[in-house]
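ok so i was messing around last nite and threw this chain in just to see what happens. nothing serious, just curious
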Amino acid sequence: MGRVVLVTGVSADLGGRLARLLAADPDVERVIGVDVVPPRGDMGEVRFVRADIRNPVIAKVIAGEDVDTVVHMSVVATPGNAGGRTSMKELNVIGTMQLLAACQKARSVRHLAVRSSTAVYGSSPRDPAMFTEEMAPERMPRSGFAKDVFEVEAYVRGFARRRPDVEITMVRAANTVGPTARSPLAQYFGLPVVPRVVGFDARLQLLHEDDLMRAMRHATLAGVHGTFNVAGDGILMLSQALRRLGKPAVPMPAFAANQLGSFVRQSRVADFSPEQMAYLTYGRGVDTSRMRNVLGFEPEHTTATAFDDMRRSMPLGVMAPERLAGVEERVTHALGAGRG
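result:
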């Protein structure tokens, strides 16, 4: 008998891709995909169940399907993808709590794989050159996705204490990019005029979307437990990334960049939170030794090749003229305020 795998968040592109990838594996008997809305495309051999992980009904799904492996992919990074910040926090934190409560009750569950994020380390001027899995953030996250991830990981550790018989694999994925990945970072680089904070050159370490799929499949099936940073080799400085794009950069003081980020978020041009602006100011690097030596996973893409794959897929003229005019006006205003 093969694995019976439940995957959350299958209506999102990455969650759906992973569910189909697992369903094609000979070691997997069947895959159940759950989400609050049906997936847009064909799910192939994946059986979709419409269920909200924030609701205790998820326990009935796990018990009824005799699930032995749960893959938690529905930790969302942007409010726009969840219907607002309140819904995002409910899905990330309350959803994780309910899912873990359901797993705790189900004696059939033997393995849990969680897609987490290196955002848990935050970004600050006091950061080490590379974060290892044992390190804590220099500044504890106070809001946004980073705080959600911090709480999600805390609940997972609590679950591990209550169910020591369950193997848990936590993948702290670096910022994910690629031809189809929709992320705040891709939106940032998609702007026709790219703002950057004066005096800083953020260190970017990226993960290709295909490597994320491979890493989550490996984390689900390899039988290795623990917490692992997963990222491509190498660092790309923000200045280098902008040169590769061939786009003009607008230097701004930090307060003006934060003001612009708020405007861009409100106008729905892109989804920039304060934590994302901090990342684009200071950057972040993570040590991936455990990924190779313990998890036994090797990404196919480096940070540079992952970025180039995203760059090649970027459409031209993606922003309507009236929205572009609003961004340019705000940039000009912010720069004027900075000089004053």
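not much to say yet. Confidence is low (pLDDT under 50) at residues 317-325.
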